Amino acid sequence: QKEVEQDPGPLSVPEGAIVSLNCTYSNSAFQYFMWYRQYSRKGPELLMYTYSSGNKEDGRFTAQVDKSSKYISLFIRDSQPSDSATYLCAFSGGSNYKLTFGKGTLLTVNP
Amino acid sequence: DAGITQSPRHKVTETGTPVTLRCHQTENHRYMYWYRQDPGHGLRLIHYSYGVKDTDKGEVSDGYSVSRSKTEDFLLTLESATSSQTSVYFCAISEGGEYGYTFGSGTRLTVV
């Protein structure tokens, strides 16, 4: 079983749609859960960061963690063309200085 | 990206030549990392450093070496470049995994 699984997409949605991005993980030691956004030809940037199970909201973005199911999600409301990017989930806790990344989901929001 | 710079941004080199990529930070973060990113493979850790002169291997370290003689600089060397090392290389810095990483803008390396 892979430590992290993330559907690579690609995912294409119309502007204004609600987007759901998901990752599953198998390592029970993971305690910190993150989402990175990577625009084409740029480095990944930290978008959302959560520690506990539950929801965390930041503007149009909501990160959701379900530790019991080992499942995390990122929701984007009222998606915009500027949200078009690759989204990577990331996990920490197995080692206190290394992150484990998903392979990323490519999202395109069409005007 | 703020506090972290990579050089060069682009490089084309010939098979068999040595290549050194540089990562420079101004954040005084303890941890530094080198990743490569390839389609279908995502980000893969090459080497990382947890302090000056303290480095360790990642999952794809064969053919690569690193050095960290100062807190702010982390060098990645391809001893003898091969076509399979054509990739985008990212440096990242961190105060600890629980704080996440800050990534550089990447170096696009082509080995011909």
Outline the fold blueprint.
The complex is a heterodimer of chains A (111) and B (112).
Chain A: E1 4-6, E2 11-14, E3 19-25, E4 32-38, E5 45-50, E6 54-58, E7 61-66, E8 71-76, E9 85-92, E10 100-101, E11 105-110
Parallel strand pairs in A: 2-11
Antiparallel strand pairs in A: 1-3, 3-8, 4-5, 4-9, 6-7, 7-8, 9-10, 9-11
Chain B: E1 4-7, E2 10-13, E3 19-25, E4 31-38, E5 42-51, E6 54-57, E7 64-70, E8 73-78, E9 87-94, E10 102-103, E11 107-111
From the structure above, extract its key features.
heterodimer; A: 111 residues; mainly beta; 6-stranded mixed β-sheet; 5-stranded antiparallel β-sheet; 54% strand; globular; B: 112 residues; 7-stranded mixed β-sheet; 4-stranded antiparallel β-sheet; 11 strands; 0% helix
Describe it for me?
By secondary structure, chain A is mostly beta strands. Chain A has strands spanning 4-6, 11-14, 19-25, 32-38, 45-50, 54-58, 61-66, 71-76, 85-92, 100-101, 105-110. With 112 residues, chain B is an all-beta fold. Chain B contains no helices and eleven strands. Chain B has strands at residues 4-7, 10-13, 19-25, 31-38, 42-51, 54-57, 64-70, 73-78, 87-94, 102-103, 107-111. In chain B, a hairpin with a 2-residue loop joins strand 5 (42-51) and strand 6. Chains A and B meet through strand 5 and strand 9 of A and strand 5 and strand 10 of B.
